[in-house]
Amino acid sequence: MTGNPIDWKKYLIVFLFTVGLFLSASYVSNYFGDKKIDQLKLIQDKISIDILSSETQFSLLSELSCKNISDSVLSGELGELGNKLEWGQQNLGMTDTVSYLKKYYSLLQIKDYLLTKKISERCKTKSAFILYFYTTAENCSECERQGFALSALRDKYPELRVYSFDYSIDLSAVKSMLQIYKIEDTKLPALVVDEDVLTGFHSVEELETRVKESFKLQETTLINTNPSKTIKNKIFLLNA
């Protein structure tokens, strides 16, 4: 007794359909992968221009006479740059390029911090700033909460600068700051306020008392008529 004849045509159709499905999936995957790379390159180009512009501003601001120095325009530049990096990290992931640009951002913050200190010493003024060291949410349950508190403080006192640094970033300049202030990964979040190191979470009220005593800041009521203009008051936590 002979069995049913094999329907080769049927198997061929199934095979071709499977191959077509596989090739289509590969094409779609590659298409969106290429789109993601294009987006990343666009972000990289924009940030590179921002960095070059900021480098030029550093040189110009360092040469200003004391009477011509007001609030540094770099605060807005840093906010815009941080916003672009945060978008890149959330939408594109921590790729090598995003990680590389994050290091640029950290260096730019350090340069602004050093410029601010230099101007303060030369002009006999006391600039208001806080250094903030954080790490990932998995390793620091209070870091995100601390970031929100600092953002609220910045909203209330626009003169205040807050420089945020990821403890785990592989950057010698940041590591030097960690050594200078003796910041430990087991005591994060950590803040440096007027050369005093504070570890653990600190509320807006606690920090407000400290900065008002140290820097004599004036409270400002902000009317947010354009949300895009408040980017500089956000504390960016760009995790590695």
UniProtKB/TrEMBL annotation:
Keywords: Membrane, Transmembrane, Transmembrane helix. The chain crosses the membrane at residues 12-32. This is Thioredoxin-like fold domain-containing protein. It comes from Candidatus Nomurabacteria bacterium GW2011_GWA1_35_8. The lineage of its organism: Bacteria, Candidatus Nomuraibacteriota.
